[in-house]
Amino acid sequence: MVRLLFCKIFDELYDRDKPPKFKIGFDDKPEQVKANIVELWKQVRHYFSNDGLFETHEEIVLDPKSIVYIVGELEKYSLTKTDKDVVGDAFEIFAERQFAGEKGEFFTPRPVVKMAVEIVNPQPDEKILDPACGSGGFLIYALEHIWEIMDNSPKYKGEHLERHKKETAQRNFFGIDKEIDLVKICKAYMSIIGDGRSNIVKADSLKSPDEWEDAARSTLTTNGQKLKKYDVILSNPPFGSKIKVKHKHILKQYDLGYKWKRDKENDVWVKTCKTKETEPQILFIELCLKLLEDGGRMAIVLPDGIFGNPTDGYIRQWIKDKAEIIAVIDCSHNTFMPHTHTKTSVLILKKWGKTKQKNYPIMMSVVEKCGHDPRGNETYIDGGEIKTIEEEFSKVSEIYKSYPSRVIKDYDRLGFTLYEQSLKNDILIPRYYDPETSKELEKMEQSGKFELKTIRQLTTEKLLSVKGAGTTVGSQEYDIYEKIPFLRTSDVGAWETRNYAVQNVSVLTYLKYKDKQKLREGDILFVKDGTYRIGETFLLTKYDLKMLVQSHFLIIRSLDKEQLDPYLLLYLLHIPIVRKQIDEKTFVQATLSTIGDRLSEVVIPIPKHVEMREKISKDIKQKINLRAQARDEMKNLFNDSTFYV
């Protein structure tokens, strides 16, 4: 299909003084159509031979009827005059099944690409690189961005403008990908927009130039060894724990390919002399900064774990030592769906020159609307005759352009300023610092109706305790045919549990673990790890005590029921402002999300009026107990053998 697309593009761009060959004549039979396309393909293959794109043995292998169908569908359109997003989508559809998933290559949504390009703002005289270019989305938008600058600049206006634009594309745009089919697609895409294809090469960016093919080495190095440097880098590298780089000869080229240890005494991370298997996205951060000129800018899409995981603190320390953090954009969870559930953010950096600033401003943004739903269907703003895609990335770039100093006055979640020395534990996840949450909590406190206390304060004052569920039951110890429930996080939702757990344990297993968990009436089970259920709770009544629970639960216990009744606490854990904080403090760690110790930072607004607290407790207690009793009666009904007599 890619070969046929090349034929179509070539037919539109070259030999315009001759009749088009990518067509079906009125009397043409399928065999004749295929013969015409095969002849056209030979021209294409020869034309691109210097690019190393196609081997001499590559042929059009589809049968004549299939070719007739494809040519008949495509001849109605001009690919060179079609909106670039449509063409890009077409290319990505063909590549998507082959490269997404196990190879970790997920194509960047257009709103994210546009935002990154506008913030980094490449200029006509700058060299631009994408070291994991895929189908070329970042390069295409960067090229159009630069051409728009040239169109509006007196420096480039005149009869030679188009020649200057083409020369800029050929001279200043570079792309690398290790998949030859993606290199072909990127070249085709660049050809449609206006050339720039000559510097798109096949290579594994993470490897040494010694291991590259001649075309890549001659394009990207001087003297075949020393890597060239670039003014702007834009990239969405492959990511995933299943595609770790394992070869020591590659890992040794990177600081981040080594194990790092935390020096608690000096509060720094220290590199050891041992390498470790490393996810490619981590190595790409270092590669990109190596390839940047001093003062160069880059935008890179990365999984959220890098921005917040305690175990990834060494990465953030390394980044801060090498570059100024310009901005971090927290992408909506749906951004890369339906292709992957991985939560991502966009990191904008400027490589340090000879001097480094201290306590500089960082622009933070939290994007909630990405333009499509979890299934990939576009979402639109309600109202108006013209359909407008509902996305907020364009607003982020507008805010950035309005505040080039990054000191934002009229701030909200889409754009606010955080100073480098205000980072907590070097956490770079914007939603963790969401100013709208602080505003709302401040407003509640100023109303005089609430006393605001963190969970850490409540535990210090011995009003409650928070502890882990302890040793969990191994899979070899539970059985659906036993009778004592083993409660897992998937069994909990909407303040209740199923009538029966999916898994159960024997009496012996229960006796083995029950004293370690010490469940009591009034305990709140809080889901601390998982994918979607973090923050879900279940309050134990007298009907629920004979059970064991999974280690992914925390046990929150009221120690002073007069001051903080468990039913009141259950209610407060689910009010919107508390749920919002729980979401903000939940980070992805490896394949699971976790709130970890950050739960202690969550602020609980406790009503000051005793009557209000008592009313909430009474109402919640009544409903919880009625539901628990009904659940227990239903369970007994199904277990009653006389029912069938």
CATH C-level class of the largest domain = Alpha Beta
Second CATH tier, the architecture of the largest domain:
3-Layer(aba) Sandwich
What summary fits the major beta sheet? 9 strands, mixed
Q: Tally the helices: what do you get?
A: 20
Low-confidence stretches: none
Specify the structural class: alpha+beta
Main-sheet strand order equals 3-2-1-6-9-11-10-12-13
Looking at CATH, the homologous superfamily of the largest domain is: Vaccinia Virus protein VP39
Integer average pLDDT: 89
- How much of the sequence lies in strands comes to 15-25%
Distance between the termini: 67 Å
Radius of gyration: 30 Å
Query: How helix-rich are the residues, as a percent range?
Result: 25-40%
Q: Kindly identify the CATH topology of the largest domain.
A: Rossmann fold
Q: What is the count of distinct domains? A: 3
Strand and helix map with partners:
Blueprint: H1 2-13, H2 30-47, H3 64-74, H4 84-99, H5 110-120, E1 128-130, H6 137-151, H7 161-172, E2 173-177, H8 180-193, E3 200-202, H9 214-220, E4 221-222, E5 226-227, E6 230-235, H10 248-251, E7 258-263, E8 268-275, H11 280-291, E9 292-303, H12 305-308, H13 313-322, E10 323-330, E11 344-351, E12 361-366, H14 393-402, E13 416-419, H15 435-446, E14 450-454, H16 455-460, E15 464-468, E16 484-487, E17 492-493, E18 496-497, E19 503-505, H17 507-517, E20 524-527, E21 529-530, E22 537-539, E23 548-549, E24 553-558, H18 566-572, H19 576-584, E25 587-589, E26 592-594, E27 603-607, H20 610-639
Parallel strand pairs: 1-2, 1-6, 2-3, 6-9, 10-12, 16-23
Antiparallel strand pairs: 4-5, 7-8, 9-11, 10-11, 12-13, 14-27, 15-24, 16-19, 17-18, 20-22, 20-24, 21-26, 25-26
